Amino acid sequence: MGRSTRRLDAAAGFGQRVRSARTAAGLTQMALAEVAGMHFTYISSVEQGERNVSLENVVRLAAALGLDPGDLVRGLSPTDDHPSG
For the whole model, what pTM was predicted? Predict the structure, then answer.
């Protein structure tokens, strides 16, 4: 299955948190990508809520932002429109 451009509730919330932390740290998407070892287009799609980010990448982003990974995911809710199974 290809990458979807629809926004997922949890992914959108996560992306907003990443963007907020990045801007608070005074980082561009390019700078965050470099520190996290990712491509800047990946950072952009995360911030737009277009990615279902892997645990590994949550940890990498949090480390690059100087945060605990839990700070980026605590309290996020999954979407209700995903079929079970």
Answer: 0.83
Say which residues have a Cβ less than 8 Å from residue 54's Cβ, sequence separation at least 6.
Answer: none
Read off the pLDDT of residues 46-73 as tens digits, 9 standing for 90 and up. 999 999 999 999 999 999 999 999 999 9
Query: Which sequence spans correspond to the domains of the chain?
Result: 9-68
Q: What is the CATH number of domain 9-68?
A: 1.10.260.40
pLDDT at 1: 41
Question: How far apart are alpha carbons 76 and 17 in whole angstroms?
Answer: 10
Beta carbons within 10 angstroms of residue 19's beta carbon = 18
Nearest to 45 by CA among 29, 26, 58: 29
